[in-house]
Design brief:
The protein has 143 residues and is α+β, with helices and mostly antiparallel strands. The chain contains four helices and six strands. It has a six-stranded mixed beta sheet with strand order 2-1-6-5-4-3, with helices on one face. Mean pLDDT is 90; it is low at 7-16.
């Protein structure tokens, strides 16, 4: 009887962990869907809502390492000043893996369909749950 009770508790615990990870991944995908929509409307501030609004945010791209939410937004505005430049964004998520409690990495590809020429690349972003919300705390993108 003890073994059956132990096994039942073990199965319930595993099920709970799997459910939590599923919910986390679904929430992260939701943030990224909102980012696709905002970007595709050239709403860069809306796109940045998916990022941690902190001076500790890290973005690593072709221009090197950028620290901070404000500087990252400024770089986006400089690089994508109009709808023709921002175009339509589509993410392809290749992997979402848990790093530790309340942290995941997302590996994927991005596709920008735009009038000034399409742009595609890859990314590795790290999400952390901060104050109940999933936010990107680090982004490495190259195209």
């Amino acid at each position: 009887m003890k073994n059956i009770l132990f096994l039942l508790c073990f199965i319930i615990t595993l099920s709970s962990i799997a459910q939590t990870e599923f919910e986390d991944k679904t929430a992260i995908k939701s943030v990224m869907k909102l980012q696709e929509k905002a970007w595709s409307q050239n709403d860069l501030e809306g796109f940045m809502k998916g990022y941690w609004k902190s001076d500790s945010l890290k973005f690593y791209g072709s221009s090197g390492l950028t620290y901070g939410w404000e500087k990252t937004l400024a770089n986006y505005k400089k690089g994508y000043p109009t709808k023709d430049h921002s175009g339509t964004l589509t993410f392809k998520i290749n992997d979402i893996s848990k790093i530790e409690n309340n942290s995941y990495w997302v590996m994927g590809e991005y596709y920008l369909s735009r009038k000034v020429g399409d742009a595609n690349g890859i990314f590795l972003i790290i999400f952390r749950k901060i104050n109940g919300e999933w936010k990107i705390v680090a982004d490495m993108s190259c195209g």
